[in-house]
Amino acid sequence: MKQITKTTASALIVLASLTAPALTEDKGMDTPPPDNPELSEGAELLNRGFQLLLDGLAKEVEPMAEKWAEGWAELVDRFGDLNAYHPPETLPNGDIIIRRRIPLGADPAAPGETEL
After folding, report:
1. d(C-alpha 11, C-alpha 70), whole Å
2. Which of 23, 36, 45, 79 has the fewest CB atoms within 10 Å distance of its CB?
3. pLDDT greater than 90 at residue 48
4. CA atoms within 13 A of residue 105's CA, in its CB half-sphere
5. Regarding beta strands 96-97 and 89-90, do their DSSP bridges make them parallel or antiparallel, or are they unpaired?
6. pLDDT, tens digit, for every residue of 7-36?
7. Could you say which residues form the signal peptide (predicted)?
8. Helix, strand or coil for residue 102?
9. Which residues contact 50 (CB under 8 A, 6 or more apart)?
C-alpha cells in the first residue's frame, strides 16, 4: 500500500509538471512552438504510460475499495445516526472514546430522581 501511494504521488507530480505549461495563459505570444516530432512522440508515450499506470492502480485498488465499502456499511449499521454521538475524545493514556449524547440506559422522557 505504501508503494502504491509513492507511485501515485510520483505520477501525479510528473503529470502536473507536464500539464502546468499548458494551463498558463498566453501573454501576447501568437506564434505556436516549433513542431518537434520527437517531442510529440515522447509526450504521447508519456501519456500512454500514465494511462496504463492509472488503469493498473485502479484495478489494484478496486478490491480494497470494495472492502472499505463493506466496512463503512458495517460502521453505519453499528452506529446509526452519527448525530447521536459527541466528537471523539483522546484521553491522556491515548485511548479514544466516543460518547453518546444520550446514554443507552437513560430515557429522556423519564423524570429524574429526587432526594427526600
Report:
1. 29
2. 23
3. yes
4. 0
5. antiparallel
6. 665 665 665 665 555 545 445 555 555 677
7. 1-22
8. coil
9. 11, 14, 15
| CA 24 to mean position of chain CA atoms | 27
Let me know how long the chain is.
116
Containing 22, the helix (H) or strand (E) segment is helix 2-23
Amino acid symbol at 90: T
C-alpha 33: how far from chain center: 38
Q: What is the pLDDT of residue 69?
A: 87
3-class secondary-structure state, position 32: coil
Tell me the CA distances in angstroms from 24 to 19, 20, 27, 29, 31, one per residue in order.
9, 7, 9, 12, 15
- The pLDDT assigned to 40 comes to 84
Q: Residue 60 is placed in which grid cell?
A: 489494484
